[in-house]
Amino acid sequence: MTRLTRFVVVLFAVLCGMLSAGPAQAHKPSDSYLTLTVGAQGITGQWDIALRDLDFAIGLDADGDGNITWGELRAKHADIAAYALARLAVQGDGAACAIAPGGQLVDDHTDGAYTVIALKVDCPKPPAALALSYRLFADLDPQHRGLLKLESHGQTRTAVLGPQAPTQTFELQTISLVDQFLAYAREGVFHIWIGYDHILFLLSLLLPAVLLWRAGVWHAAASFRAGFIDVLKIVTSFTVAHSITLSLATLGVVSLPSRWVESAIAASVVLAALNNVVPVFRGRRWTVAFGFGLIHGFGFASVLADLGLPQGALLLALVGFNLGVEVGQLTIVSAFLPLAFGLRRTWLYQRLVLVSGSLLIALIAGIWLAERVFNFKLLPF
To answer: How far is it, in rounded angstroms, from Cα 263 to Cα 108?
Structure first.
C-alpha cells in the first residue's frame, strides 16, 4: 500500500467517524430563497430565510439555550417580517409595489431550518417589467446571496441578488431559449469564480504542471508544450468527471448528502495540495482530477438546484451552466499557465509558490474541512 493510499484510507476513516459523531450540517454560504410568481391575479411568492442568519441579526433564541423553538419563532414573526421586508423593494414599470407578508412556516433545507414567509405583491397595474432591490443582511454579511426564482408566462428565470448586484430589473415578456441559456451560463462562470474550494483544488493540480519531478527534486519543464499537455489532461479529466456527476445529480439519477459532498470537496483540496509537497501521483495528476472531479460535480449540482431549474428547458439550463463553469475554469487556466511557465526556473516559483503555496492551500482547506464537519465558522470565505 502506497503512502498516499494509506493517507487517504486514514483520512476517510477519520472523516467517516466525524460525520457519524453528530448531527452537524455541512457548511454552506448564507443564502435566502425568494420565489415570485406573476399570474393573472397578481404576484405571489415566498421567501425562505435561514433561522441561523435571523438569529444573528435580530435574536430568536430567547432563552439562549442554542435551540430555537416554535414558540420562540412564533413570538418573533412580526419582527422577522418587518426586518425582511424593510430590505426588499419591488417596482413594476418604475412604480413602487406594496409587499404584504402572509403566514410563516418552517422548512428544512440541506443546511438547517428556514422560516418561510408568504408574500403578496400589489403593483399599481400589471407590470411588463419588475425591478427588485435586495439588501437582506447586507450590513452583516457581504457574502450573503438571495437566490431568486421568477416565474412568468410559464417560464422560469433565476438570478443571484446581493451586495454585488443589489438592484436588478427583469422583463416579464416571454424569454427566449437563448436568453435562458446565457443566463445559466453566466451563473456557471460566476460560481466557479467565487467557488474558492474549486479554484484552490484546480490550482493545486496546476502548480506542478510546468515542473518535472526527478531524483527527489522539482526541475523546470523544458518546453511550454509539455506543461500545456499536462494542463490539458488535468482540465479535461476534471471537466469530464464533474460533468458526469453534475448531470446525474441534476436529473435526479444519483443523490448524495450535501454534508458529505462539501466535506469531501475540502478533503480533495487538502490531498491535492499535499501531493505537491510529497509527490506520489507525479505524472498521474489527471487521475486525481478525475476522481475528485466526480465529487466536485455534486457540489456544482447543489448550486444549480438552488438556482432553480426551468422545467421546460432543463437540458438547456444544465448545458448552459456547465459551459459557464468551463469558461470560468479556462479563464483561470489561461491566466495561470503563461505566468507559471515564465517563473518555473526561479526559486520564487519552485519553493515559495509551489511548496509554501501548497502548504497554505492545505491549511485553508483543512480549516474548511473542520468547519463543514463540525458546523462552525472561522474563515470569512
So the answer is: 20
101 in Cβ contact with 117 (< 8 Å):
yes
pTM of the model: 0.71
Structural domains of the chain in order of their starting residue, each with its CATH number? 31-175 (no CATH), 184-374 (1.20.1250)
CB 31 within 8 A of CB 147: yes
pLDDT tens, position by position, 127-162: 999 999 999 999 988 888 898 989 887 777 888 898
pLDDT tens, residue by residue, 228-243:
999 999 999 999 999 9
What DSSP letter does each residue of 182-216 carry, written as one string? HHHHHHHHHHHHH-HHHHHHHHHHHGGGGEEEETT
Residue 97 Cα to chain centre, angstroms: 32
DSSP class of residue 271 equals H
The answer to whether the beta carbons of residues 297 and 243 sit under 8 Å apart is: yes
